[in-house]
């Protein structure tokens, strides 16, 4: 079992609903949706391009997937996340936009978002005691030879290369799309998400995701309101 601390909008948020239709799966209950065609892409092509993102569910990474440290329990992790969320204040990102990052498409803040960066940094450090050290196989999966010295240091110290100054908030929508198809994919996503790309992003929830077995789809174990209310469990 691996866990991850992610941001995701609430289940009934319009952005969640559209993203679940795009990806073909809900992380809240694991329900699969029929593949959709978009732009000039067939349903089969969209299903292919969203396969990697579909396994993780619609989210933005704050604390990357980790196994629990020895002596720590799931109940302790849930309680700590609930307390952490209750002691924060919700905030909004004025607008999101579509971006292509290292070949894949994601939703990102349209302008610098220091509150997001601070939240992510605090999650990384606060929950480090819950993370077991990476195995050699887990390190290798991060392709360490391709990382910068700073990213490599982050990987060994924090279990993930893209933290602190290397962090970039993003909500992944595709795997890597070939350059020849990038313009068509950008148009397809823009048409599919439409005016939602002009809306503020409410950062009012933290979610604990879980991967029951290696390679299995991630799902939401519990959802925690920033500012405080009783956590909601989903599995």
TrEMBL record:
Origin: domain of life: Bacteria
InterPro entries, sorted: DUF1045
Any Pfam family the entry gives: DUF1045
NCBIfam families: Phn_opern_protn (TIGR03223)
Protein name: Phosphonate metabolism protein
Species of the source: Chelativorans sp. (strain BNC1)
Organism taxonomic ancestry: Bacteria, Pseudomonadati, Pseudomonadota, Alphaproteobacteria, Hyphomicrobiales
